[in-house]
Amino acid sequence: MKAILFALLLLCVSQGRHQTRGIQMPNEYIVKDLIHESVGIETLETPHFNIYFNHNPTTRWDHPIMYFKSHILVVQKTILDNVPGILEKFFWGFSKFMEFRTQGMNGKLSLIDENFLEHKGISEILGIPTHHVMLTNFAYELFAYCTSIVAHDKNGEIIHARNMDYPLYQSMQNLTYTADFFDNGEFLFRSTMFAGYTGVFTAMKPGKFAISINERHTKTAMGIGVNILRFITGSYSPASLLKHTCRYAQSYNEAKEILSKYPLTAPVYLIVSGTEVDQGAIISRDRSGAADIWLINNHSTADWVIVQTNYDHWIKPSPASDKERANTAYHHLKNIGRSELDKENIVTDVLQIPQILNRGTIYSTVMQAKITTGHSTDVDVGGAYFKNYRYQ
Ligand SMILES: *[C@@H]1O[C@H](CO)[C@@H](O)[C@H](O)[C@H]1NC(C)=O
Ligand SMILES: *[C@@H]1O[C@H](CO)[C@@H](O)[C@H](O)[C@H]1NC(C)=O
Questions:
Q1: What pLDDT, in 10s, does the model give residues 78-112?
Q2: Residue where one domain finishes, among candidates 81, 115, 141
Q3: With bands split at pLDDT 50, 70 and 90, how would you rate the model's confidence at 13?
Q4: Is 204 inside any structural domain?
Q5: Hey, which of 153, 298, 300, 339 would you mutate to test ligand 2's pocket, going by the most ligand atoms within 8 Å of its Cβ?
Q6: Same domain, residue pair 68 and 192
Q7: Using a 6 Å cutoff on CB, does residue 337 contact ligand 2?
Q8: Is 135 within 8 Å of 77 (Cβ atoms)?
Q9: Which CATH number goes with the domain that contains 199?
Q10: H-helix or E-strand containing 167?
Q11: Could you tell me if 114 and 120 are in contact, meaning their C-beta atoms sit under 8 angstroms apart?
């Protein structure tokens, strides 16, 4: 079995040499080509589900999967139609190996085993092979084009806001929901989720911290092969590291530490905010550790707010649209000014400005992890603030 896996892996890696991304999206889904097109703003409520870590991984996601089943199958098909056959075969082999490995397993599971059992449970409800769910979960993380902002607002509180832009926006819009995660009766965190996907891109742990992910372009041709290799050898995928952090970290500093250091399958930007002045960081991650940590600074005229799109802030970006999106965001944030910035105008006057809001934007989320009971009735999460805007 190990020999087969290894052979498949070598094939994937050698294919990776000829293909930068490994997975091709159909042209109509490429966000960068749509970046200048704004959309009519029609926001929708996101459906809401509870997820319980103390439930068996194979049944943990049942409710959202049943609810979104027909929409998930559309997205699965689009992704599968566009991945190289070799990748599909590889995940088939990997799923057989995991099936064998997790047989009769119980007690405390490693992340890789737990993920597999979750994907297995999801595939049973969808009526498709487990490796298709594994493969689409793997593929999702390669294409999260985003804008994330951490700022001090007019009350001196930390505010964290993000747009999620995604190539498959037409069908992903129908997969967006809000999840509250619990363990043994205790509420842990809230997240904006995509049904069928078990990683976390946007989340808040009330009274502690908020986090978002932006994709960081993989430059090496071997990228996808290395991602897979690290995936198998137990590195966290960025979105499963976010989930792990939200589940276990108890403070902003602890979250920042985990997000900076744990081994990852792929480079990524991790944006984290806390509850006190100067608690905000954009961590530019390499697979093995932080390439750069950029901190918000209350006493700086430039860095009282920090913005991340999809380029390293210390180099000239390509594609240029990533930088334009960040510049537009800065321009509008400075127009509002820190004496006026609040949880509403960061949406209407920044996130929903054309270019920052574009055809690929699926949702905006605004988070304030600090508990300020009394301020936030419609978005109350134990007294902290979390609001989703889903676009159609
Ligand atoms: C999304 O859902 C709406 C409402 O059910 C439907 O009209 C639309 O066709 C769906 N879009 C896609 C791309 O599946
Ligand atoms: C943060 O900066 C603002 C504006 O310069 C200032 O009024 C405030 O006192 C500062 N807060 C802290 C905790 O330093």
A1: 888 888 888 889 899 999 999 998 987 777 788 88
A2: 141
A3: very low
A4: yes
A5: 298
A6: no
A7: no
A8: no
A9: 3.60.60.10
A10: none
A11: no
